[in-house]
Write a structure and sequence with these properties.
CATH class: Mainly Alpha
Pfam families: MFS_1
Number of strands: 0
InterPro entries: MFS, MFS_dom, MFS_trans_sf
CATH superfamily: MFS general substrate transporter like domains
Subcellular location: Cell membrane
Order of helices and strands: HHHHHHHHHHHHHHHHH
Helix content: over 70%
Keywords: Cell membrane, Membrane, Transmembrane, Transmembrane helix, Transport
Shape: globular
CATH topology: Growth Hormone, Chain: A
Number of domains: 1
Membrane topology: Multi-pass membrane protein
Low-confidence stretches: 446-462
Strand content: under 5%
Mean pLDDT: 82
Number of helices: 17
């Protein structure tokens, strides 16, 4: 499922210019093709994680997979911008159900730090493999058959994964739905994130008027309402006591900044390659290909060894330093860049940085969690990732669109000015995460939970 989600996101990134042209999105508004998914994903992750604890992770995973697959059909058949965004919201809900239980299952199945580092490396390698395939496949499908096919291709993949999952997934029993779900809390946080992203996107559009300020204020009220709900609910999505843990807040602040940068980089660099450098969809996919290849190799072979030898924090700091360097190189590209000399080097540096950053930052976000807290902390970390991606993409897309709209020069130069400004701001996000890792994080002792026994999904031989 992780492969399927990443495959979908990278395919969509390559196809964004075609989708914008066919469905009439504005420069800032086209970010909703990605953000519609991310907002629903982030807003429902905590509810999905709690549901996994109550109903069993395997049931929630398969339900999310089915919803994601059905929503992919809706996206592929969408004839208007509104229909596509609605389909992406439903996809995000399905993705949340499936993804919310994945990291917690990895932590419980591989409790030892060394084994957990290897498992996280494989997890990151799987994501990188999906990204590599997505960039190329997205370009081929978009050029040959049109962008709707990039969503419809999820259908056979979803069916195959569902059949395999029913056979292979460990059968966790869960504690029972009678323990309760905080549905109002999930609606409040999803609404707050949605309106917050909407208000940010509107600031990048001409003649935004007071709508952005009004929706921004309403978003703040909904998020405050969510916190109040967590204080009063019998079964809150986030017990407020967990927000009193300094380590958790510091680690996930870095998570937000890293994933805000990653999603913004992927989205805006795809637009840069097509709209400034003049590549078609296939050319864009091939241009991006070195990054996921490097990420996959580093996350599978290098990051686990470094993390096992040095610990996650030094590895994270090294990765963040590489990310800052790569983004600064992107922010200095000329108006007529050469791929070999101006684009390829920062793409390789970014791949090296992401390959060691993502496994180590996920381990740090999960560090110190008690066995009973792994699902909760995993859900909180996943929410930070997706909310950070949605908010970061909104901010960077709005900055790029605003700079482009105000630039007095020709269109290509205006687009270049907007995208390079966004890359420079993104480097500031990562630099802030690096400062948090250097001065605020001190690795706690990673608690080793007892391995959980699962009922077999297949008959046992005696």
């Amino acid at each position: 499922m992780s492969l399927m989600i990443v495959l979908d996101s990278t395919i969509v990134a390559v196809a964004v210019p075609d989708i914008q042209r066919d469905l009439g999105f504005t420069d800032a508004g086209v970010s909703w093709v990605v953000n519609g998914y991310l907002v629903a994903f982030a807003g429902l992750l905590l509810l999905a994680g709690r549901l996994g604890d109550l109903a069993g992770a395997w049931r929630v995973f398969l339900a999310g997979l089915g919803l994601f697959t059905v929503a992919s059909v809706l996206c592929g058949l969408a004839g208007t911008a509104g229909m596509l965004i609605a389909g992406r919201f439903v996809q995000g809900a399905g993705g949340a159900l499936a993804a919310a239980v994945v990291i917690g299952m990895i932590v419980r199945l591989f409790p030892e730090p060394a084994a957990q580092a290897r498992a996280m490396g494989i997890y990151s390698f799987t994501q990188a493999g999906g990204a590599a395939a997505g960039f190329v496949l997205g370009g081929v499908l978009t050029d040959a058959l049109g962008w709707p096919v990039i969503f419809l291709i999820n259908v056979p993949i979803g069916v195959a994964v569902g059949l395999a999952g029913r056979r292979l997934l460990p059968r966790e029993t869960g504690t029972g739905l009678g323990r309760g779900l905080d549905v109002p809390g999930a609606l409040l946080i999803t609404g707050g994130l949605s309106l917050g992203v909407y208000s940010i996107v509107r600031t990048g559009e001409p003649q935004a008027g007071p709508a952005a300020a009004v929706t921004g204020a309403l978003a703040v009220l909904l998020i405050l309402g969510f916190l109040l709900r967590q204080h009063t609910a019998a079964r809150p999505l986030i017990p407020l006591t967990i927000l009193a843990r300094p380590w958790l807040l510091k680690a996930n602040a870095a998570v937000v900044l890293v994933f805000a940068t990653g999603m913004g980089f992927q989205f805006l660099n795809a637009l840069f390659v097509q709209r400034v450098m003049g590549y078609d969809a296939l050319g864009t996919g091939l241009a991006f290909l070195p990054t996921p290849i490097v990420i996959g190799l580093v996350s599978l072979f290098v990051a686990p060894r470094l993390t096992g030898r040095l610990g996650p924090r030094p590895v994270l700091m090294a990765g963040l330093t590489l990310l800052v360097a790569g983004l600064l190189l992107l922010g200095r590209m000329p108006v007529s860049p050469s791929y070999a000399t101006d684009m390829l080097p920062p793409l390789i540096v970014m791949g090296l940085g992401v390959g060691v950053t993502v496994p180590s930052i996920i381990m740090l976000a999960m560090a110190g969690a008690a066995p009973a807290d792994t699902g909760l902390v995993s859900g909180f970390s996943n929410t930070a990732q997706q909310a950070g991606g949605a908010l970061g993409l909104s901010v960077l897309a709005a900055l790029a669109a605003g700079r482009t709209a105000s630039f007095p020069g020709p269109t290509t130069e205006a687009l270049h000015a907007g995208y390079t400004l966004a890359f420079q701001v993104a480097s500031g996000f990562v630099l802030t995460a690096l400062l948090i890792a250097a001065f605020a994080l001190r690795t706690p002792k990673i608690k080793t939970p007892e391995p959980r026994t699962y009922a077999s999904s297949t008959p046992q031989k005696h």
